[in-house]
Design a protein that fits this description.
This protein is α/β, with parallel strands linked by helices. It is about 50% helix and about 10% strand. It starts with 13 loop residues before the first helix and ends in a 5-residue tail after the last helix.
Length: about 550
Amino acid sequence: MTTPEPDSLDRLSHSELIGLVRELIGEVKRVAAENEKLNSSLAKLKVEHQAVKDELARLKRLPPRPPQKPSGMDKATDRSGPKGGGKNDEPTRRRGSTLDKLKIDETVVVRAAAPAGSRHKGYEEIVIQDLALQPKVTRYRRERWETPDGRTVIADLDPGIVGGYGPNLHRFVLMLHFQGQVTCERIVALLDGMGVLISKRQVVRLLTVKLETFRTEDAQVLNAGLTSAPYVTVDDTGARHAGKAAYTTQIGSDRFTAFRTGPAKSRQAFLARLCGTTAFYVINDAALEYMKGRNLPQTVIDKLACHAAHTFASSEDWARHLDALGLTDLKVTPDPVQIASEGALWGAIHHQRLLQDTVIVSDDAGQFRVGEHGLCWVHAERLVHKLIPANDKQRNAIEVTRRMIWWFYGSLKDYKQAPSEEQAQVLRARFNRIFKRRTGYATLDRLLKRLFQRKDELLRVLDRPEIPLNTNASENDIRAFVTKRKISGGTVSDKGRDARDVMIGLSKTCLKLKVAFYHYLGSRLGISGPQIPPLASLVRPAPA
């Protein structure tokens, strides 16, 4: 556009001036749009630049920068408010005595040096707790007999003894490593200082021996949770195994936690972990419906449905079946092998009657979008919180949007306490008003539009008030796993990987069931004391 000289503006007619102004307005809008694009590109470059700086700091072994400050939406919308402090707050209830939980082993009377003529006024009691840790060394003399046929018979040892170490020391090592997050080297140093002769190799053996018992119970816990829980929250994190990158998936509810580690975190891998330790493949109505929902061609679905074989016990059998049907040779989108495998695993989940009425709540990672799915509100709001505004107008748009989301999130919390159909309709209408708004900040508007498209998953709580609004419980569970990874690094053997997943999962399950992990280990290792029933029976809710 050629801008006229200032002197020539006086000679322009009224209509020409209007046309010129319109051209200038269009030019300003074009410049503003280009400026917004440049600001968006600059923000992305800043993020990439910071990622490069973080990687450089990691290679130089410098301390990492602090993570982004959380938005605080969940705590800010808690109706209970901060505890104590204001004069209008209700008085805080004092904690009652917990001494009734203790068993008094010994009573000691302490005499006082009172002068002559004093009157005895009873006793002032105080309960002292102490702990005595000292090694106990026992020599076992096992009888040996020779039978008439020349065989040698030797008396059996207590089954709790492992490689020269008793069950109490075995329990102590498991507690230190999996619940206390103590490394093998420090366990060796601690026991050595107490007078126990033990090596790192022997400690590692104690961590992985009798693993099959715990692995079986862990699988039963996962099965019980997926069968009976109204919801599960899921998350994943990176891991190292055998010198390669791996991924650990957390699956849990308010009554159980399970961890599974594998080389991939795809949807197929997630479905295989839901199936259990021995994933198998089933072609049934649920599998065929899944394939239709993923746009698999009807001709491929008919091939799978019309074949006589519908159940496959292993991934090798399933791969041979797909190859026989000619699916592995098809180079089309979507990949028929991938979709068919996911569908067959989903069919196996339904065949085992898992996740029948269970909502999967996730942070919107694609691999978790299966079945009845709900989204985490904290992660949804975090997308708005992470936007980088370029000017005051954009900054104000973000602030207003966040306040509206916080207000709506607080209303959802209230709804969970007293759900009703009328209130659900009001909240749906309010959701539309919030996420259909147009703020003038293009990036924010695109984000709101994308969140509006996930309306059903974000408002799943209106139909199922018992499900949580966030995945904070999963992040809390997986934090213990991340701490273990930071302290001990990765695993080398499959036994070590399974021991880590199983034992951390069982310790978290015990915590949720209010069962002392110490007593649980003692019960499974045959140590006298409280006997803990199978955890799977505690995970399933008691019949009404």
